Every structure is written in C-alpha cells, then in structure tokens.
Amino acid sequence: MTGKVIDYIWFDLGYTLLYLKREDLFLEVMTPTFESLPSRESVSMAFHLADKLFMREYPGVLGSDKDTYLPWYFGFIFHYLKMKVDLCKFSKTWKKATGSPLEAWHLCPGVKETLSALKRKGLSLGIISNWDSSARPILSKLGITDYFSTIVISSEEGVAKPSREIFERALEKSGAKADTSLYVGDNYYDDVVGSRKVGMDAVVINRFGSAGIEELTGITIIESIRALTDLV
User: Fold this and answer.
1) What fold, for 8-17+108-230?
2) Residue 1 has pLDDT above 80, yes or no
3) SS3 state at 47
4) Where are the domains of the chain?
5) Binning pLDDT at 50, 70 and 90, where does residue 64 land?
6) For labelling alongside 101, which of 21, 143, 144, 207 has CA 20 to 30 A away?
7) For 203-232, how does the pLDDT look when each residue is reduced to its tens digit (9 = 90+)?
8) Within 13 A of 232's CA, how many CA atoms are on the CB side?
9) b/e string for 29-47 if b means 16 or more Cβ within 10 A?
C-alpha cells in the first residue's frame, strides 16, 4: 500500500470472499480407505500449497474443466501429506462427493461485517472475478450481491484476469479511477499482476502468512478480509 486515498475496493471471489469446506470433504472421502488420517490442519496446508503452486506454475489451470487436472492436483496434495493413493480413483470419488457450486461455496469468516464497515467508510465496492455462470447465483444465495456497485465476471465478459481488459471494463462500467482503486485477491499472478497493468494498488490475502508465496516481495499481504478495515 502506498498511503494514497482509496475510494473503490475491488474483490476476487474464491478464497477472498468465498471458500470451500474442502478439508472436511477430503477427510470424509479418505475415511473408508485409510485407518490413520492426517490432521485437518495438515490437509488445509496441503490444499493451500497446491493452490499456490498451480497459481504460480500453471496459471489458468484451476479455472479449467476439473477432468483436465484433478488427479494432477491431488498428486501434489498427497505429496505434501506424504501419502500414496490411487489418484484417478480418488479423483473420481471426490467428484461424486462434491456438491453443486450453489451448495459448495460459503462466505469466508468476517465478510459481511467487513463489507458493511467499508461501506460505512464511504467506499464503493466491486467484484472482478474469473468465474463461470454460477457467480451471480452464489452471490445472491449468500446474500452479498447488494454490497457491490459493479460486478464483472470473466465468463460474461469473454476476458479474464490477468488481462488488463477485464480491469479496464470494470473501471469503465463503474466510473472508478484506477489510481484510487484497490484490488483484493488471493492469486498474485492473476490479481496483483493484472490489476497493476491498469495502475491499481493491490493486496494479497494469504491465510498462512508467507507460506506458498515466499518468492513474492514488495506486496502487502493480509491473512483475512478482516484486516482491510485497518488498511483503508
């Protein structure tokens, strides 16, 4: 953060405003097969590290069809957990156990409280997200649509982060200015790199401090959305 005045805050969705209860599902899927299960904390860290690895090394993959990457992705999960498993079989079982997007996504802790506090400060709020057609139904179901003046979704626009075009469209739709906007997301390579192309400041949410993003320097890192109210 540079200390300049901010009047518009833009948000990513996944692991910024929303999260999956995937650790619980993972342990549930493993239970019939393994007598000894890893701790929930180690599973959470394994998912986190796999996410960050894919964001850095394989950009765009996590947003693609799950059939194209699930065994590959879970290979890293089990590597971090130091466990061996039939990855194809596990991935098929995982897919069957996973519910619809409307049921799977939940609000991160503190989201409504933080958004309300930011609105009380007179800030305008928006969303710029790489997401499919489920984005607006999920936001509506979780009751947060009305917090946002502008919502820009990649599947609707035909362009995605980190392309500068999706950020330019958001600025045009909202009337916001890049130099008084702040972008908040969990993926440095989509969120910070993309928003900086149009001159926005950016903040990275990383639940585990610098874990998984040790290569990054010169960025502001917060552990949850709650920390935003002290930044702006």
Assistant:
1) Rossmann fold (3.40.50)
2) no
3) helix
4) 8-17+108-230, 20-104
5) confident
6) 207
7) 999 999 999 999 999 999 999 999 999 999
8) 32
9) bbeeeeeebbeeeebbbbb
